[in-house]
Amino acid sequence: MIFKSIYLKEGFNERRIDFSKEVNLIHSDENSKGKTTLLRFMLYALGYNIPNTKKIKFNQCEVEMIVENEKKEEIKLVRNSLPIIEIEINKKKKVYVIPEQQNELQELIFGIENKDIISNLLGVYYIDQEKGWTLLNRGIVIGSIHFNIEELIRGLSGINCIDLIEKESQLKRRISKYKQMFSIAEYQEILQNEEGLVTNSYEDKIDSELDSLLIKQREIKEELRRIDRTLSDNKHFKKFVVEMKLLVKTSSGEIVAVTENNIVGLNDAIELLVTKRKITFTKLADITSKIEKKQKNFDKEYEQLKFFKSANQLEIFDKRISRIPLNQVIIKQEITNLEKQAKNIREEISRITKNNNTIVSNIFETIIKYAIELKIGDKDSISPTYLFTSNLKELSGAILHKTVFAFKLGYITAIKKKLNIKLPILLDSPSGKEVDQENIKLMMNILKRDFSDHQIIIASIFKYDFNDINIIEIRNRLIEII
Asked: Which residues belong to any copy of the Rad50/SbcC-type AAA domain (predicted)?
């Protein structure tokens, strides 16, 4: 995909910017002029949920961008204050609702249909100035947009872990609920240690009586269900026996056909069950009436308590919380058990993702190739498992900066090899505070040599040595009166 042009309008201010298919430098002599804002506008036009910059709110601007997809088709994207993006391709218009149809829109733009790839694509081709140069293989790309290398690899490898991922999500939801329960149990302990909390009040008595009635109601309902099941089974049995058209011989030698009326005892049993059901249903109606009456009295007393005693919300909350039967030990055990299950599922997903995976091997080989050139390591110092590392403490400054750069190039190369798609490369402020010009030169040389067939867009206050570079100059402000 290639960015061709972008038109920005903010009130009476407007600006149109054209991009080269090769190398573009968004440049200003000073920081905070709008370089990062322009990059974010480009992503905003693609449908991403991008945070505003200090000086410009995106939803108060009109954005019109033209890109070229892998089929060499021009796509015009228009986005304004509404949560929609209107596109025009091959003289046909279509509207996408954002964020609900974001993936569908980007599938069209990038020519990629796999959800795992699309949802992680921004973390492949874009490095943000704030968090991007510390994002190695998982974490936040920008705003609320995340990147996860394992998802990307599963997408590129065609690995399906949907069932396991759904199980993990269910376990996470259950763990979250149990943790909330545990917090309530801890709160109850605080209440028990406080002086003056009344636990045997009139309200407690009402609650206790209601609980007792509700328990009886559940027991009666269960008894009704048992009676209904038995009745159903007996009726089906009677029908089954009759349909078999059995014949029986009496003691006198007479042969008689079995019918509903001459099955001894069965009809009596059914009648007995029907009578029992009527009695049980009457009990249910009676106890339900008592519950409704008790609840009505409780609500009335509760309103009076609020009016006459001016009970505040905290007192009401404390009294209600104190009545919930919770056991910290049991809840903690359940949380531990669920977390263990979730961990096992994550390990299984990770094992499936990593084992015998050529995509993993290809990415690792590319990373090692550029790591050697950037002087940050080789096969002896970097193992294949490092591709999935979560330990970034040992990396800092220029080493982390260059390592992130090598990883990104590994991802971009893997997508090009697997899908034959050349992603643009967007770099925001590659000249970090601890990165000297020698290291910058190493990074730029790699881009010039190995990624000359990709569109490169760099935002920086520095200028870089490329043979043919389109400079987009920002002087005082990104969007100015023309």
From this structure: 12-231
CATH code at position 267: 1.10.287.370
Please tell me the distance from the alpha carbon of residue 238 to that of residue 375, in angstroms, as a whole number.
86
CB 47 within 8 A of CB 119: no
Per-residue pLDDT at 394: 67
Number of H helices, E strands in the chain: 13, 15
C-alpha span between 456 and 20 (Å, rounded): 9
d(CA 107, CA 98): 14
Strands 92-97, 126-127: pairing kind: unpaired
Asked if the model's pLDDT at residue 309 lies above 60, the reply is no
Residue 70: give its domain's CATH number.
3.40.50.300
> Looking at the domain assignment, is residue 34 inside a domain?
yes
The first and second tokens of residue 38, run together, are 């322009």
The phi, psi pair for 16, rounded to 5°, reads -115, 135
Q: Does residue 99 have a cis peptide bond before it, meaning omega lies within 30 degrees of 0?
A: yes
Long-range contact list for 117-121, CB < 8 A, 24+ apart?
Answer: 117/152, 117/155, 117/156, 117/415, 117/419, 118/155, 119/151, 120/146, 120/147, 120/148, 120/149, 120/151, 120/152, 120/155, 121/423
Q: Is the pLDDT higher at 308 or at 369?
A: 369
One domain for residues 151 and 73: yes
Please report which helix (H) or strand (E) contains residue 255, including its range. Answer: strand 255-257
Structural domain contains residue 480: no
Judge whether 481 lies within some domain.
no
pTM: 0.71
333-352 per-position pLDDT tens digit: 999 999 999 999 999 998 88
The residues, any chain, with a CB within 8 Å of residue 407's CB and separated by 6 or more, are 136, 137, 367, 387
Within a 13 Å sphere around the CA of 83, how many CA atoms are in the beta-carbon half?
A: 7
- Pick from 10, 55, 20: nearest CA to 458: 20
Question: What's the helix, strand, coil split of the chain in %, to 5?
Answer: 55, 15, 30
As a whole number of angstroms, the longest Cα–Cα distance in the chain is: 119
- Integer Cα distance of 175 and 188 in angstroms: 20
Same domain, 31 and 102: yes
Query: How far is the C-alpha of 462 from the C-alpha of 309, rounded, in Å?
Result: 71
Per the structure, how many domains does the chain have? 3
